[in-house]
Design goal:
Elements: H1 19-44, H2 50-77, H3 81-102, H4 105-115, H5 125-140, H6 147-177, E1 179-182, H7 193-205, E2 211-214, H8 217-226, H9 230-241, H10 257-273, H11 279-283, H12 292-305, H13 307-325, H14 332-347, H15 351-354, H16 360-375, E3 378-381, E4 393-398, E5 404-413, E6 423-428, E7 431-432, E8 438-439, E9 442-449, H17 462-479, H18 501-507, H19 513-519, H20 531-539, H21 545-564, H22 574-585, H23 601-604, H24 614-632, H25 637-648, H26 656-664, H27 671-676, H28 680-683
Parallel strand pairs: 5-9
Antiparallel strand pairs: 1-2, 3-4, 4-5, 6-9, 7-8
Helix pairs in contact: 1-2, 1-3, 3-6, 4-5, 6-10, 8-14, 12-21, 13-21, 17-18, 18-24, 21-22, 25-26
């Protein structure tokens, strides 16, 4: 059989991929072919056009993406020893190829000559934007460096690729290495029935008696929120908060401490080679924020605006724990537990009371109905598609003109060998092919929800419903694009601090009564969430929003400062800076053994380095944009079409600020974010 990663198929043939047999040969062959074609193009033409230079470059990039995307995805959702080995064998090849491509002076000059030629003026807006971005990215990749510095930059790129992958693998291994085995039923007091059954199922799978809890988030979260045993909560908290660190019971085996230090060192040196003072400044070259001062002012302003609310929240929580159980010192392993109890007392509502009304299938169907009302698109499941796991479902999208717009894989449930968290990623990107036809986009949507147990369907918490809507917002951005140039199609080429805008706006519908009626339905009766429960849910919407806002600001300030303040003589000062940020921002200081940073994959294994602030930055955009729906109607199709036309369909073509103004009629204001977060009253005092 031919290599499935090289097959001319519409979708990846996941079931046929044999890591040790197919992965490295496929990547090696694609890279070899691409290099050969590039050499031929640069030697053949003396005058360059879009058709003889940029279109073939798109073809080469797409060829490699379609081979590598399923490999990278499997590495995240279905890892095995053979897959990890093959993936890591290919990383240096991929990194070296991209670095060599972006440091190719001859290619850079060819694109520059196209930009300087009369032909450039005949190109459309998308094509000109692609060329502008390419020239910028060549410079940010070191094309103008000396030969010696180019070589050093390439070494750093390769090292970073290895280190960030190692960071993620250490987190996965440390997460899966630890379990809590409970043998006495009396110790399970407080846990919901479904979580007890899931723990029993996990124990049975491991051929153990009793109940087994893991550090996969659904299991960990249930223990921290509901288990009455303070000692067991403490054990879980210590294990979770010390993963992949020097404090881990498996200390040394998966410790990310030195990995983080090396990542920061390599990033800083890369930035310096390109003439930037530090990596934070370097990162802003592809963001809306134009200076570190602007980022820090934005974050510190929110710190001040959330101060009173956060202090009130933690004071209330401490007083409640003291009154309820005589807890004199509220510890980190108590916070989620008493938060849930306090929520129930204040609003007479709990996540467990809500879950029966949010079976996953009903929520998904309701989500599809909502986007149909907003954007006129229909989403239908397609059976018989080759996937990597039985849980995975596949859907296709058509618009109101019955035009096919794209498709997505949905993988919602936690399991072993799957990376924690939730994310959207590209399988294929929309682009116009050489024959003039359109390649339709395909997305991966991945979550880690609690799976179905016995005869009960998977039931989602309100937080999980929000997560699903958030990631689906990313999918819509990827799938509804009408941009035909792949490097600015969908989420590609979007300035990084605006990437979260389309995902965050989707979260707002999770709180609207009309939307709740659509996405809820009791798993036994089909009854939508009763009005009484909805009123309680809405009343509790901003419960502890001050603390939650401060937590996100803690992450963002820590991330930005470790990249902004890096000093080669002093090293990363990771723990020191985190402690400083916490003393400024945190309303509950974690124990000294806490090593949250050692599992902060967003910045050490993902794309958010010196950019975690983007979540709050984009939240200003999304809150203000949603306020227009509040003014015109939650499902106003005219507003929905305007959002699709000006934001979702435009990819990375426009400046995000210009696109926002076209939709909203003015620049964004922070008022809506403060109102939606319940912080307005605090700032007016």
């Amino acid at each position: 059989m031919e290599n499935p990663l090289l097959a001319e198929s519409t979708l990846p043939i996941f079931s046929k991929i044999i890591p040790e047999k197919h992965i490295k040969p496929a990547i090696t062959e694609v890279i070899k072919r691409n290099k050969k074609e590039l050499t031929a193009i640069l030697s053949k033409y003396s005058e360059f056009t879009w058709d003889n230079l940029m279109a073939p470059l798109d073809e080469m990039h797409d060829r490699l993406t379609k081979a590598w995307s399923p490999i990278s995805h499997l590495h995240s959702v279905s890892e095995s020893e053979a897959l990890r080995e093959a993936y890591n064998d290919c990383l240096p090849l991929i990194t070296a190829y991209h670095t060599e491509l972006m440091q190719n002076s001859q290619l850079f000059k060819a694109i520059q000559s196209l930009a300087d030629s009369p032909h450039y003026q005949q190109l459309n807006d998308s094509q000109r934007k692609v060329i502008t971005n390419e020239l910028r990215d060549f410079k940010l990749s070191g094309v103008n460096l000396s030969a010696e510095n180019k070589a050093r930059f390439a070494e750093l790129q390769k090292e970073l690729s290895r280190l960030t992958t190692l960071f993620g693998e250490n987190v996965l291994d440390a997460t899966q290495a630890w379990t809590l085995h409970v043998t006495e039923a009396s110790e399970l007091k407080g846990l919901p029935k479904q979580d007890i059954e899931l723990a029993a199922q996990t124990a049975a799978q491991q051929k153990m008696t009793g109940w087994v809890f893991t550090l996969e988030y659904p299991s960990y979260s249930a223990v921290m929120k509901f288990l009455e045993s303070r000692e067991l909560r403490k054990q879980m908290y210590i294990a979770y908060s010390t993963r992949a660190s020097d404090q881990d019971p498996m200390a040394g085996k998966w410790d990310n401490t030195l990995v983080m230090a090396d990542i920061l060192r390599a990033r800083h040196e890369m930035a310096n080679l390109l003439g930037f003072q530090n990596y934070a400044v370097y990162s802003l070259a592809i963001k809306m924020a134009d200076s570190p001062e602007r980022v820090l002012h934005f974050l510190n302003d929110l710190v001040n605006k959330s101060k009173k609310a956060a202090e009130r929240d933690v004071r209330e929580l401490r007083e409640f724990a003291a009154q309820t159980d005589h807890i004199q010192t509220l510890e980190s392993w108590d916070a989620a537990f008493y938060t849930e109890k306090l929520r129930q007392q204040k609003y007479d509502i709990s996540q467990e009371e809500l879950k029966p009304y949010f079976p996953a299938d009903k929520v998904i169907a309701g989500l599809f109905d909502i986007v149909n009302k907003l954007y006129g698109i229909q989403i239908r499941e397609k059976k018989g598609v080759d996937t990597w796991h039985n849980d995975v479902k596949f859907f296709e999208i058509v618009d109101r003109e019955n035009q096919f717009r794209g498709s997505l894989y949905m993988d919602l449930y936690a399991r072993p060998h799957k990376r924690d968290g939730a994310w959207m990623d590209e399988c294929k990107v929309r682009r116009r092919l050489l024959d003039g036809s359109i390649q339709d986009p395909v997305a991966f949507l991945t979550c880690n929800f609690t799976r179905a147990v016995d005869d009960r369907p998977a039931l989602l918490t309100q937080d999980e419903v929000e997560t699903l809507f958030h990631e689906f917002g990313h999918c819509l951005h990827h799938l509804l694009t009408k941009i035909d140039c792949p490097t600015i199609s969908g989420i590609n080429g979007v300035l990084w601090d605006a990437v979260e805008f389309p995902s965050q706006i989707m979260e707002h519908w999770c709180w609207e009564k009309q939307a709740i009626d659509i996405i809820s339905g009791h798993y036994k009766t089909g009854e939508p969430l009763p009005d009484e429960l909805y009123k309680k849910l809405h009343a509790a919407k901003n419960f502890q929003s001050g603390m939650q806002t401060r937590r996100q600001l803690e992450f963002a300030l820590f991330d930005f400062r470790i990249h902004l303040e890096y000093d080669p003589k002093k090293g990363g000062r990771i723990q020191e800076i985190l402690d400083e940020v916490r003393s400024q921002v945190a309303v509950m200081i974690p124990p000294k053994f806490n090593r949250f940073q050692n599992t902060f994959s967003h910045i050490f294994a993902g794309s958010y380095a010196a950019g975690y602030y983007s979540y709050k930055w984009a939240e200003v955009l999304s809150s203000d944009a949603f306020s227009l729906f509040e003014e015109t109607g939650t499902f106003n199709p005219k507003t929905g079409q305007a959002f699709m036309r000006n934001i979702l369909e435009q990819g990375g073509l426009p400046n995000p600020m210009d696109a926002f103004i076209l939709f909203r009629g003015r620049e964004p204001r922070i008022d809506a974010l403060l109102r939606h977060s319940g912080l307005v009253e605090e700032t007016n005092q």
